[in-house]
Design a protein that fits this description.
The protein is of the alpha+beta class and 238 residues long. It has one helix and 15 strands; from the N terminus they run αβββββββββββββββ. The chain has two domains: 45 residues; 129 residues, no CATH class.
């Protein structure tokens, strides 16, 4: 076999790989387009009548139900396609009595008792943005967890004066009991939670950042009172 035939064979193989690559790219594009189309149709079908919307700007849906360990309750986030809350429209109210879930789309959370079928909302309105929530649990036995409390990071104030509540605003750190009752705001106006964990004494240990300074605190999970709070010391130059 001469050199010309060898190069011709190589080009044929390269051309085959290029063709297969193009086919794969087109298949991925078609798949993503079809998948997004069906996803949009599904979201449209799931729009629920759960809150007033005079401006017709919200599409409401319920998030995935989450069982609260060691209790009879489930929590379900109320989600919106809007990822922020307009400051000037705080008159919008939820149907029902008082309760909240990212840039988060959660505006409220529903707690449902799986035994009595009674339910309540965390907040009385949708005029807050819930950036995160987490169920704080302790180990009852090797394979059983018990919920001690639930913590939330919430935007409920337009701290940068841009007329919307979003992730650029300062936050409020709050706690409730596992059934969603006893909502208590622990700290407000900070930038970010770094860590939160239940210590060996059963108290919540939190590290957070506020205005480029790092703080830590201990919170009693029985009464949601701050036991101790301090700013972390700076390292000395010399």
């Amino acid at each position: 076999m001469n050199i010309d035939k060898i190069f011709k064979k190589i080009w044929q193989i390269n051309g085959l790989f290029i063709l297969l690559g193009l086919i794969l790219i087109f298949a991925i594009i078609i798949f993503e387009f079809t998948n997004n189309l069906f996803r949009d149709e599904f979201r449209q079908e799931q729009t629920l009548d759960l809150a007033n919307d005079d401006k017709n700007t919200e599409k409401w849906s319920l998030g995935y139900p989450e069982e609260i360990p060691g209790s009879k309750f489930y929590l379900i986030p109320l989600e919106s396609e809007n990822k922020h809350v307009e400051e000037k429209s705080r008159g919008m109210q939820l149907y029902g009595s008082g309760s909240s879930y990212s840039s988060n789309r959660s505006k409220n959370i529903l707690f449902i008792n799986s035994v009595t079928n009674k339910s309540n909302w965390l907040f009385e309105s949708v005029q807050q943005l819930i950036l995160s929530k987490s169920i704080l649990t302790t180990q009852k036995s090797e394979d059983i967890l018990i919920a001690k409390a639930i913590y939330y990071e919430v935007i409920n104030s337009d701290t940068n004066n841009d007329n919307i509540y979003d992730y650029t605003d300062k936050r409020t750190f709050a706690l409730t009991h596992p059934d969603g009752s006893g909502y208590s705001e622990i700290i407000s106006g900070y930038n970010r939670i770094v860590q939160s964990v239940i210590n060996d004494e059963g108290n919540l240990f939190v590290i957070y950042i506020n205005n480029e300074k790092v703080h830590s605190m201990l919170v009693d999970l029985n009464n949601f009172k701050i036991i101790n709070k301090a700013q972390l010391p700076r390292v000395k130059d010399s």
